[in-house]
Write a structure and sequence with these properties.
By secondary structure, the chain is an alpha+beta fold. The chain is built from eleven helices and 23 strands. The strands form five sheets. It has an eight-stranded mixed sheet, with no helix packed on it. The chain has a five-stranded antiparallel sheet with strand order 10-11-12-17-14, with no helix packed on it. A hairpin with a 4-residue loop joins strand 11 and strand 12. Helix 4 crosses helix 5, helix 5 crosses helix 8 and helix 9 crosses helix 10. Bound molecules: arginine (ARG) and zinc ion. Arginine (ARG) binds next to helix 4.
């Protein structure tokens, strides 16, 4: 495959940047990935996107999407060329700074050669006009993401990489950006996305929805649901807008749970600190036959009416995952361990078993119905999944949460509450990795020895000797 060829410029880039000089061609191509340990081609080097302006039109019957993506980015090196990630679709035109640019494609890499070089620190605007029938992607773990067609529209979402099926971009969680999405759909259907609905206008046979996500968002948290939905708008505490879009067949079962979003957020703010975004809600879509929920920013997606535990999990991700995002896909436990621990805390705070009791049940093998399920928790260390296919497996969720319970036991409740809130505050709207986490915890609890916790619970193979 061309993959090794494309990696060469990325590896040479720092060297060439040092030796190249002014005048004529001084830039080098940006990398075709950001060296994610699990998804090496995800994201691109050489620039940082601050804003996506997406103008889309979808025709569900013809299964045809037409789009113009306008990215505002800052060069982090002198650039003669740079890559975007886009999987499938046909590219019709690319401009940089208003001028037509050359481009070519290989797999998910769209390489753009601007008319002139871009200087380091320059802010530039790139537009990509594209169209086609967006693809559905099968993840390394077998789940489906990307552009999932439904009986009346689509559910677009993707962790870790499905977003590259419906818009070109820097599809890696390390590059977060604001979004403005304008999408037109046949009259009668609705289009629901992240952030806040700014306008909705119907002209002739189509309705156009404008959504804005002002706070930085990783592209894997972007979503677009098109179809027939029951819409509800209300306000949570402090006037926070709540927008829910529910598959009509799931409406009755969803209502009593989704009505509790304000209550869950009130509880979560007490535990995790201020809610990091300017709106909330949910999307429930059974038609996509998804099989999992996803913490899409502001507005998590559920494959059917959620239960309280799942609602708590996805809302907790808004702090842990969406606001504090992983630096790479290796850091997935920082998302899932925290969201799972939030479930335990919710139970503890609502008259159920304590997090320590949940931990003990997991350790003794009494938590799951089968022995195999119980054993799966010890398959690998949460901070080091063995492959891309396994970043959403039980050790990342349950053993990740067990790490947090170990921290709580080591520092005591008061300090632990400070750490939960402090972690969300310290990396709010940013990115963090496991080393940032261990350093943060150590800093917050001077004198406590975490050596064994990190070694046995976070990085150790197999089941730790002692609970
Ligand atoms: N992050 C989602 C959650 O725990 C699950 C995503 C599953 N995706 C996957 N590719 N396995 O809420
Ligand atoms: Zn999760």
């Amino acid at each position: 495959m061309a993959r090794s060829v494309r990696l060469v410029p990325a590896l040479l880039a720092p060297v060439l940047t040092l030796t190249a000089c002014g005048g004529g061609v001084h830039g080098t191509p940006g990398g075709s990935g950001v060296r994610d340990p699990y998804f090496p081609k995800a994201g691109n080097g050489g620039y940082d996107v601050s804003h996506y302006g997406l103008r889309l039109a979808y025709d569900p019957d013809a299964h045809r999407l037409t789009g113009t993506a306008t990215l505002t980015a800052r060069a982090t090196q002198d650039l003669s060329a740079f890559n975007l990630d886009l999987l499938g679709m046909e590219v019709e035109k690319v401009t940089v700074g208003g001028e037509t640019a050359r481009w070519n494609r290989a797999g998910q890499e769209l390489t753009v050669r601007p008319h002139g070089d871009i200087d380091r620190d320059d802010t530039f605007r790139v537009t990509v006009r594209y169209s086609g029938a967006p693809e559905t992607v099968t993840d390394p773990d077998g789940s489906r993401e990307g552009w999932l067609r439904t009986s009346d529209g689509v559910l677009a979402l993707g962790e870790p990489t499905g977003s590259m099926t419906w818009f070109p971009g820097n599809h890696h969680p390390s590059d977060k950006a604001a979004y403005d999405l304008t999408v037109s759909v046949p009259r009668g259907l609705r289009a629901v996305s992240n952030g806040e609905l700014r306008s909705e206008t119907t002209a002739r046979s189509r309705t156009t929805f404008v959504w804005r996500t002002g706070e930085p968002m990783a592209s894997y948290l972007a979503t677009l649901a098109i179809g027939r939905f029951d819409i509800s708008r209300s306000r949570a505490g402090g006037g926070l807008p709540v927008y829910t879009a529910v598959d009509p067949v799931e409406a009755a079962a969803s209502r009593p749970v989704l009505e509790r979003i304000p209550e869950v957020l009130r509880w979560a703010e007490r535990r995790f600190g201020p809610y990091p975004f300017s709106s909330t809600g949910a999307i429930v879509d059974r038609a996509a036959d998804l099989g999992y929920a996803l913490e899409t920013q502001n507005r998590p997606v559920f494959p059917g009416a959620p239960g309280m535990t799942l609602l708590v999990h996805e809302l907790a991700h808004q702090w842990y995952g969406d606001s504090v995002s992983p630096k790479s896909w290796r850091d997935m436990w920082l998302n899932e361990g925290f969201a799972t621990y939030a479930e335990w805390l919710w139970e503890e705070d609502h008259g159920g078993r304590s997090a320590r009791e949940t931990f003990d049940a997991l350790y003794s093998g009494d938590y799951f119905a089968t022995e195999e399920a119980g054993e799966a928790v010890w398959a690998f260390p949460p901070a080091e999944p063995p492959s891309a296919a396994r970043i959403s497996e039980p050790p990342v969720y349950w053993r990740g949460a067990m790490v947090l319970e170990k921290v709580r036991q080591a520092v005591g409740d008061e300090a632990f509450w400070r750490i939960l809130k402090g972690w969300a505050a310290e990396y709010r709207h940013g990115n963090a990795d496991t080393a940032d986490f261990t350093a943060y915890v150590e800093e917050q609890a001077p004198g406590v020895d975490f050596e064994a916790v990190w070694e046995d619970w976070l990085y150790g193979e197999g089941k730790p000797e002692r609970a």
